[in-house]
Amino acid sequence: xxxxxxxxxxxxxxxxxxxxxxxxxxxxxxxxxxxxxxxxxxxxxxxxxxxxxxxxxxxxxxxxxxxxxxxxxxxxxxxxxxxxxxxxxxxxxxxxxxxxxxxxxxxxxxxxxxxxxxxxxxxxxxxxxxxxxxxxxxxxxxxxxxxxxxxxxxxxxxxxxxxxxxxxxxxxxxxxxxxxxxxxxxxxxxxxxxxxxxxxxxxxxxxxxxxxxxxxxxxxxxxxxxxxxxxxxxxxxxxxxxxxxxxxxxxxxxxxxxxxxx
Amino acid sequence: xxxxxxxxxxxxxxxxxxxxxxxxxxxxxxxxxxxxxxxxxxxxxxxxxxxxxxxxxxxxxxxxxxxxxxxxxxxxxxxxxxxxxxxxxxxxxxxxxxxxxxxxxxxxxxxxxxxxxxxxxxxxxxxxxxxxxxxxxxxxxxxxxxxxxxxxxxxxxxxxxxxxxxxxxxxxxxxxxxxxxxxxxxxxxxxxxxxxxxxxxxxxxxxxxxxxxxxxxxxxxxxxxxxxxxxxxxxxxxxxxxxxxxxxxxxxxxxxxxxxxx
Lengths: 262, 262
Known about the structure:
Chain A has 10 helices and no strands. By secondary structure, chain A is mostly helical.
């Protein structure tokens, strides 16, 4: 990185910090300081920090401390996400590469694709009850769909000239798949994984609102019912923070695996 | 030149009444109609044709990337069928793998044949240096100019040690200045490394500057129209009397060919 780039980066970081601080400040002003919006409607940032600390050790009103909710949600979302992506990416690649595979799975996939993931909640609830598996399966379904779609189209984007190059070097079909097609699809696969990550968190909360005894979605739902809007806000922000954290981790992995400025 | 002529009866590539047709919208369209050609070892052959017809297909057939409709291709007196490791190719558009560095691209061929890392690195480095890209080994194609990308393409073809190198209008997309420099370099590399080169172009100066023999192809379907043995000493001056005379003559021939086709 050149000196100039470094300076630019610093400048942008500063702008991001300022915008974030300004947002918190305005929020604090309209709630706590000037009282423009009553705390029953919008709790102040200070209240949210306090309730965050409070929930770390207190089980009111939903029966578990915050860390227990976070752990449950993480377990469900990460497990569901890994299953979904772990099945979806190879399946998408195989469907794009092997025609027979495509013919076999396409009708089934076309049927499943349009179903909103949350639509599976009642079914999984009947199958798995309130255990984490009712959520894990729904999340897996939510993340498998974008993983398949993107891997499939990523492989289909292979430049025929690249294929010729590999062929003139004597590469077999299998070698072309691994040395040309999959690297070609890299950026698309990662975009699919990112969408799947998003989908997994969206679905997680939706599923927990309906069918759970623990988890961030459950905490939010219970707090809403007893009028604890501060906990609702805190819960939403915690979900946002974890979403951002995972997106960042995925970005790091992407930079490591997808080379060549694509 | 003289030396080459003395041992010049070894035929490396022989095309025997080669024909190719494609089915387009249910109709058989003939692209190549009976080409006979005998190419000697270390000869620099230029296929000169103006139209869109047949030239790339012809190279792809020699490289084993395209089926032969009728006739035969012999490489080193062996009837060619499919992939042949004696043939390397440089493509029209930059066909570099964007996810691999310059080094990764150049060592792709040797790596595929299972060459040990130190051996293939050494070989790749030699050709990277030869095309004047020392210091750019770790760069990715996206960071290189069009001319530099084609240099990598040339190094990649040479690094696999093929006896025959096919070049399909490799400089068609470059600006005039870069193109001129590239022509000089291709000649230098060829003079140093030898190999049999089959070079496709629709640029008369390029053809005259590079060729031992220019094969002028007809419009669609392509067949051999006329052949020129270019005996001018190398490196050639593009303003010498003989060069200009030949240019004029071939240019008139090309015009006649076009008006015939039109």
